[in-house]
Design a protein that fits this description.
This protein is an all-alpha fold.
Amino acid sequence: MPQLDPSTFGSQLFWLLVCFGALYLVLSFIVVPRISKTLATRAETLESDLAAAETFRSEAETALQAYEDALAEARGRALALAQEMRAEVQAETDRQKAELDANLAEQAAAADVALMAARDAAMAGLKDAAADLVGDIMEAIGSDKASDGDVAKALDSVAAE
């Protein structure tokens, strides 16, 4: 094996130092700075993205709170409007019911007056018819015709009972 030949150790060590030195210089002045720059850029981008994400999150929370406030206000207005409409409908219903009740009471009173007048007229006609009927019956059975005053007294006493 030529690597283990002691006569070539000097040249092998020289080239080993040259190669490692060149590799060290290339790595330390070219590769490592580029990698460091890339890592630093990545870190800055990551930090700015995280800051933007935090800003967006706070804006979203603010927008959500504003939405919830607007929604609560709209619900309150809708509830108030519904209650107001319910009250208006109830008032209109009560007004119409009172108007109808008054109209029905007026019609009932008018019908009652008409019924009383018809009853009084019928009763007056009934008294006259009953008096005529009593007179006719008494004539038919052959008794003397009773006076109109006696028949009226008899009919009044029967009507009073």
